[in-house]
Amino acid sequence: MSKMRVYEYAKQVDKSSKDIVQALKSKGVEVSNHMSIISDEDIKKIQAPAKPAAEAPKASTNKKTENEGKKNTNMNNTKNNSKPNNRGSQSNPRGRGKRRGSSRQQSKSPHQILALPKKITFIESLTVGELAEKLHRDSSEVIKKLMKLGVMATKNESLDKETIELITADYGVEVEEEEVIDKLDIDIYTDENDSEENRTERPPVVTIMGHVDHGKTTLLDSIRHTKVTAGEAGGITQHIGAYQIEENNKKITFLDTPGHAAFTTMRARGAQVTDITILVVAADDGVMPQTKEAIAHAKAAEVPIIVAVNKMDKEGANPDRVMQELTEFELVPEAWGGETIFVNVSAIKGEGIDELVEMILLVSEVEEYKANPDKRATGTVIEAELDKGKGPVATLLVQDGTMHVGDPIVVGNTFGRIRAMVNDLGRRVKSAAPSTPVEITGLSDVPQAGDQFVVFEDEKKARSVGEQRAARAKDEERNLTNRVSIDDLFSQIQDGNMKEINVIVKADVQGSVEAVKGSLEKIDVEGVKINIIHAGAGAIAESDVILASASNAIIIGFNVRPDVNAKRTADVEKVDIRQHRVIYDAIEEIEAAMKGMLDPIFEEKVIGQVEIRQLFKVSKIGTIAGSYVTEGKITRDSTVRLIRDGIVIYEGAINALKRFKDDVKEVSAGYECGVTLTKFNDLREGDVIEAYVMEEIKRT
Ligand SMILES: Nc1nc2c(ncn2[C@@H]2O[C@H](COP(=O)(O)OP(=O)(O)OP(=O)(O)O)[C@@H](O)[C@H]2O)c(=O)[nH]1
User: Fold this and answer.
1) pTM of the predicted model as reported, rounded to 2 decimal places
2) Are 299 and 352 in the same domain?
3) Nearest C-alpha to atom 6 of ligand 1 is from which residue?
4) 527 and 424 inside one domain
């Protein structure tokens, strides 16, 4: 009994919480409101010497009951006399059970006091009316009590947990929030039949990540060819998105879906499949943007990293430089006193593969990956597609338990019975142990990569859960009206739906990233926090959009553009990408949106993309970009942006747009053209010119 809330104490001594807060403050006790927690010592400070210490609970309870009784009688009288209609309207919107409650109240004589319940329960929230009913009190009485606490609520308004607790405490009624068990959560159907002794060693699951062209695919192929003997493979290896090798009777599972995508999509969907990440860094190129991104992903997932320094056969190979560069990311080689394993390899020549495999086994020995093969299987979807002949096919990674042909299964929002299983060697198998990837058929629909699966005990249950999950997913999709966008930030903040704004920041250079981050964090709009969930240098990638979609975030791009995939995904997922060239503009826009002061804006509409294929230097004119319109069209009067590797190099106007020798007004997709830009000559082959116009957008 050493701690209580201000309002509890206030009730005991029959004073208002406000008075108590003031009294406490005047004695130097730091309290902010009725919910603040105070100790016996604090209480002592404000107790007048004449008044005995806090009344014995018994006495105060009695007093309260008396009080409540009186109030209740009054309320009933008032209502009966002056508001006869209220009652009818009150029972209207209620459900059956609830109506019974109110009719019970109705049948009582106005003078008869209904006892308060000892305890009430609720799920998530209650409306004022529902709470009143549970307390056997009239709504207007509860509304008055709320007013006293400074809460203005109508009968149909929902109350949050804290307010429900306040009111019930005021009545001296116990309250408990009931946890809802989601019958459609497949986790609850996993096989409970588990114990530590049943868990045995399982193969590690390895993902290969690294910068474009550093040799991920070549390394995966090389490992597979070196370690899977031709005889075993029967000459045909099957691409199922993952494969297993065996070395010294120990297996290793490799995911060969592109590492980053696998990581981001799966992690965005809450799945963690990777045990070890191989970070491939080309010895002649060193640490590059995607190397950094890969490190960030692996670290966020707390997955151990083994560095494979690739392309050692190349003349310019400089493994020391790679090591040096990686120390900045806390990847320090053992030779230099660190803990990170570095292996020099040449994927193309198959050199260093043995050592790499050995190191993977070493890490897995240390980490002791375990699973229980004697229970119903659970795991994650690696890949899935619709096959014309076979129907939905999915590669599943069994993460725990053993899967058998014939098992009833729920996979994401679909279900089925496993008709056939094929392993990575293209062979039909009857069962799949932990860490084994298998391609299955027999599902009723195509699941998504990253979906979880659970083998069920009986098929009927699997069907019922699967069907309901599918229905719910459909509903959710329908309800996914709008993700957060700048335009509706203010209304969401106003509605109280938005307490935190998730933001992803992408900029051309790290310096800008830091600057944008810093300024965003400084924005101060009452009660709303900006939460930067990811920030980095480089183009806006699909993984950024997926992350934004998973966390309902806005992407702010500073001097960078989304690539094609990112743009497509952003359209589908309705992710708001805001692009700016001046940091101040970006900050101002967010701040204005948060305050509901957005000016009517012109929005840019990209009308086409042009790829520069060949350059012609003409002494008087400058550089002419021999180009090809890949998408949409380019017009003479459109504004253009020159993009190189996702970074905006130039923004301005077209100087001349020609087809052959003629000036033209516009050129459409599929045609070649010659372009010169106003006051800009540093064009390169492979650059992309994006043409856009500004359109006024009507706010809805
Ligand atoms: N000399 C040399 N070239 C290599 C080696 N490994 C890969 N390459 C070459 O580097 C290029 C890129 O290799 P990939 O395996 O496609 O690289 P990646 O990282 O999978 O590339 P993306 O899939 O585009 O991200 C190819 O031309 C390979 O032949 C190596 O060990 N030595």
Assistant:
1) 0.53
2) yes
3) 215
4) no
